[in-house]
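Consider the tokenized backbone below.
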């Protein structure tokens, strides 16, 4: 399976110093995102990357479009919103690309390997920072939760909350 996150950059490393915009699409090689909502493995991903030569490295600005798949953490409704993630990354073509104090702080730049760059780890990091860990219907443009019996996080009163049984836990009553 060809990953839409891997770009061949041989021509950019050996050619002109002009930026190049490349669009690739294909299935996601792995699930990308937090537990409740993510880009599913095998889900269609479109990556539009602008790659700029920097002498001994490359700067990449990429937009990743994909349909997420997950559940509302409140009502468990299936959610499938479209999402665009933005990634900015610099890849070193040789180990001496960055020298000085900055290179010694432990943050290593990803490397160009066999004339290819792989944006997968950058996309995983971006998804972890920007996708919600507890998605809710309203936050993702689906309106209010489908199940009206599910208590809202900020209920009207404490007594109303105490008397309502969350339907997600209702099946456990027989064990009490």
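A designed sequence for it:
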């Amino acid at each position: 399976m060809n990953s839409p996150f891997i770009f061949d950059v041989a021509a950019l490393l050996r050619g002109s110093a002009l930026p190049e915009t490349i669009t690739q699409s294909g299935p996601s090689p792995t699930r990308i995102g937090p537990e409740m909502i993510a880009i599913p493995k095998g889900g269609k991903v479109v990556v539009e990357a602008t790659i700029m030569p920097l002498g001994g490295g490359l700067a990449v600005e990429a937009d990743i479009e994909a349909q997420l798949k997950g559940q509302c953490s409140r009502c468990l409704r299936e959610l499938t919103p479209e999402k665009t993630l933005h990634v900015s990354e610099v890849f070193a073509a040789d180990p001496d690309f960055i020298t000085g104090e900055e290179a010694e702080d432990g943050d290593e730049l990803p490397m160009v390997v066999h004339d290819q760059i792989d944006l997968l780890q950058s996309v995983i990091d971006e998804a972890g920072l920007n996708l919600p860990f507890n998605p809710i219907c309203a936050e993702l443009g689906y309106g209010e939760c489908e199940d009206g019996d599910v208590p809202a996080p900020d209920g009207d009163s404490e007594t109303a909350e105490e008397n309502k049984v969350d339907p997600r836990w209702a099946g456990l009553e027989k064990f009490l």
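The helical segments are 10-14, 120-130, 158-163.
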